[in-house]
Amino acid sequence: MSSQIFPSPNSSEFVMFSKLSTLFAGFYRLSAAGVVLKNKDSEQTLNMREINSVVEPQSVILITGGAGFLGQHIVKLIQERRPDVKEIRVFDIKPYLNQLDHPESKPIKSFVGDVRSLHDLLKAFDGVDTVIHTAGLISYGTFPDLEGMQQINVKGTKNVIEACLKQNVPRLVYTSTVDVVIGFEEIINGDEDKTTKPRKFLFPGYPQTKSEAEKCVLQANATPLSKGDGSVLQTVALRPNVMYGERDPHYVTNALANAKARGGVLTRVGRGDALFQQAYVGNVAWAHLKAEEAMRRQDSWVVYEGTVCDLTL
């Protein structure tokens, strides 16, 4: 299986992510030429070179769950494409190991801890400029770990927010899931503005806890940081679909195993005419960095809003 991050490293284009190609409540619009920054009456387009010239240098980015599937790809892309980053921190329940065999030009600090422990987070967040919060528990099946998901996905996210505020971390990018808007009703031509929390989630447990956590993240937007100089926390939530790619621990391998067990036939649920779009993990990782990069710019044209963005890449 060969997958490629779009665009290529030599391109000045941005990956187009979001069904509406919309980020930050309509103030950012991704296009093949760059990012269009909008205010009430005007537009201004910045290409990749211009954006790289305005981001602050020598930054520190921390990824919770950085030793996991998505986190590994985020670390890889920071190493390859973020010359402004001087240090990468990984916060996970297990030590970080480079499983993608990419070159490492930037130092990586691995913090072994639990998002349920505010003490662990405060230690790791000291001196951090941006937190990308991917850590979470996914539990399905006949007896899902409901309490574990509540503690890790909801309480853990609240702890991440509190640690950001106490340690004066100005940016938080949260990995949500498209499951937070999937219920038993059909979604036709849905987008971030049209889809809302369903009356009943399609799957119990996981979507509910991710929905609660996402709400906490968005409500925390514009909360003053503890240093009291007027600085605030800026937040955004991204909703990726099911991901595939290098080091995929579940999706493709389970699908192939199920097909093999059924004589080479892959079971399809429903009438057979529904469309389902998976997302390449490298593109999802790239979207996280583009969101972080957009939040980082100090530009009078930009209006930051705590909002969500659906990812189908």
TrEMBL record:
Instruction: Please provide, alphabetically and separated by semicolons, the GO molecular function terms listed in this UniProt record.
Output: oxidoreductase activity, acting on the CH-OH group of donors, NAD or NADP as acceptor
Pinpoint the 3-beta hydroxysteroid dehydrogenase/isomerase domain residues. Answer: 62-298
Determine if Oxidoreductase is one of this entry's keywords.
Answer: yes
Task: Enumerate the Gene Ontology biological process terms.
Answer: steroid biosynthetic process
For this protein, the record's InterPro entries field holds:
3Beta_OHSteriod_DH/Estase (IPR002225), NAD(P)-bd_dom_sf (IPR036291), NAD(P)_dehydrat-like (IPR050425)
Keyword Oxidoreductase listed? The answer is yes
This protein's source sits in the domain of life called Eukaryota
Sorted keywords for this record are: Oxidoreductase
As for family, the record states: Belongs to the 3-beta-HSD family.
PANTHER family for the chain = GH25466P, NAD DEPENDENT EPIMERASE/DEHYDRATASE
Q: What name goes with this protein? A: 3 beta-hydroxysteroid dehydrogenase/Delta 5-->4-isomerase type 4-like
Per the UniProt entry, what species is this protein from, by scientific name? Lingula anatina (Brachiopod)
